[in-house]
Amino acid sequence: NRRHMRLVMKLQKDMAKSGAMLQHISYCMSRVARTESHFHTTAIHGMDLVHFLAGSPHRKGQLMTADLSRHGAGVRNFILNASFDKGITAHMDFCPVSGDLRESLMIVADDITYDVDLPVWRWDGYTGRIIKRKKGELVYDEYGVGDIDDGGFVKSNGFYYQVKQFLKDVGEGVMPRDNIATALSSMKMADIVANNNYLAWNEDEPG
Predict the structure, then answer these.
(1) Is 98's pLDDT higher than 90?
(2) Mean pLDDT of the chain
(3) Residues 50/25, Cβ–Cβ less than 8 Å
(4) CB count, 10 Å around CB of 156?
């Protein structure tokens, strides 16, 4: 659903308009008291958002973990470093036992940096925030569009637009934009986490 968040759609449009070449994506997901050993099934949403913004499947990467078994069997932080087509890199942190429920991005595109706070699971009307800087100067500091009376949580978290796009594609007789092919990369990464494959994986980049 994060692909369809209003804030993410705004971010994509701004990145495309700027013409700057994407270099790096830093992503962090934190949760409160998520002590189940299968947290990777939640983390896959972040992996999917990163490869969606990068515009290609994950090509190379490495998994690192930090044991948190004091909170329960199988509980751990995990970190993924990945690379994509066109030399784009990413760093992803997943912290299931923390002091806050948050998801954030820092995106570097040539001389532009975006700091993004996603409105994940916010029922209070908060629509997220984007701060854009260029060459060290603030360009804008804006909150997401919409409010609690305009679809609220369902729209700000992308569920409304995800279903709307799917129905539109089906109605037009075209392959839905969100399909198995676009999800395979993230599913593979989540499987790597689930199976503790600490070694770097490597897929040949397209010629």
Answers:
(1) yes
(2) 83
(3) yes
(4) 28
From the list 95, 103, 55, 68, the residue with the least C-alpha distance to 79 is: 95
Give the predicted TM-score (pTM) of the model. Answer: 0.85
Residue predicted with more confidence, 180 or 167: 180
**144 to 6, 107, 168: CA distances (angstroms):** 7, 17, 24
Which residues does residue 25 pair with via DSSP β-bridges, in sequence order?
A: 90, 107
Burial call 21-43: b when 16+ CB within 10 Å, e when fewer: ebebbbbbbbbeebeeeebbeeb
> Which candidate, 108, 102, 77, places its Cα nearest to that of 90?
108
What is the pLDDT confidence band of residue 175, given thresholds at 50, 70 and 90? confident
Are 1 and 183 in contact by the 8 Å Cβ rule? The answer is: no
* C-alpha to C-alpha distances, 165 to 3, 23, 119, 154, 168, nearest whole angstrom: 11, 28, 20, 14, 5
- Taking residues 184-198, report their average pLDDT: 77
In this structure, which amino acid lies at residue 41? T
> In sequence order, what are the residues at sequence separation of 6 or more whose Cβ sits closer than 8 angstroms to the Cβ of residue 16?
none
Residue 63 has pLDDT above 50, yes or no: yes
- As a whole number of Å, the end-to-end CA separation of the chain is 31
